[in-house]
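Hi R.,

Here's the chain you asked about this morning:
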Amino acid sequence: MLTSDGPFRDTFRAGRVARPIFLLLAFVSWTSWTSAAEPLIVEQQSRTFKISVDGTERGTLTMSLARRNDGTETMRGEAELLFNFVVYKYRYSSVGTETWKDGRLIRLANEADYNGDKYVVQAAATSQALEYEVNGESQRTAADVWVTSYWCEPAPDKIGRKLNLFDSDKGRQRTGTLQRIGAEKLIVATLPVTATHYRIRGDVDVDLWYDDEGRLVRQTSLESGHRTLLELTKIRR
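And the predicted structure, written out as C-alpha cells:
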C-alpha cells in the first residue's frame, strides 16, 4: 500500500532492500505463468437471435463466441421463451457453455428449465466417447457428436452422413442425415447475405443457414409439432 511517506521510503533502510525486489520478481514470474496458463482470446463476438414459434415471436437467444490461441472455441448460449396463453403461462430458459477443439466437443455444461422441470447436463470427452450426466445420472454417447445448438457450420466430411446428435438441454441422443442444399440469398439484420443452407432429417427436422464466417444466421425446425424460427438480429464484436 502506498502511504503519505512515499512508496520508496523503506527500500533504502538497512537489511530491507531485498524484500521489495523479491516481491517484484515474484509478481513478474506469477503474471508470466498465469498468462501462459490461460490461452489468449484471439476472436470474440456475440450473436442475438429472435425466436418465433408458429409465426409469433416468443423470445431471444444470445450466443457468445470465443476462439483462443490454443485452438479451442467456446459458445455460451442463453435462451428464454415465454408462451402467454389465456389460461396459463409457459416459460422456458436455457443457459450453457460448449468447448470445442479440432471439430470435437470436449466439455459441456447446461441448465434448462421447462416451466419448472429442470435439467442439469454435464459432459466431458474421453478418448473413445463423450461421458455425460443428466441430473446426476451417468451416461455416454459417441465421441463425434454434434450438439443441437448448431452454432458452427458442419465440416465437409459430415455431409451425406448419418450424424450422432446431442441435445444439450435434456441430454438426449438423436440421429439425422445431413444434406448441403447450397448458397442462398437472405436478409440478415436488414443486410443482404449469401448463406449456405443445410438440412437434417431423421430424429430431428431442421434447416440451417451459415454465413461466410461459418456461423449460424438462421434456423427453422419442427419441435413437438410446432414450427420454430431463429433469425439473427445483431452481431457485436
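The chain has one helix and 15 strands.

Let me know if you need anything else.
M.
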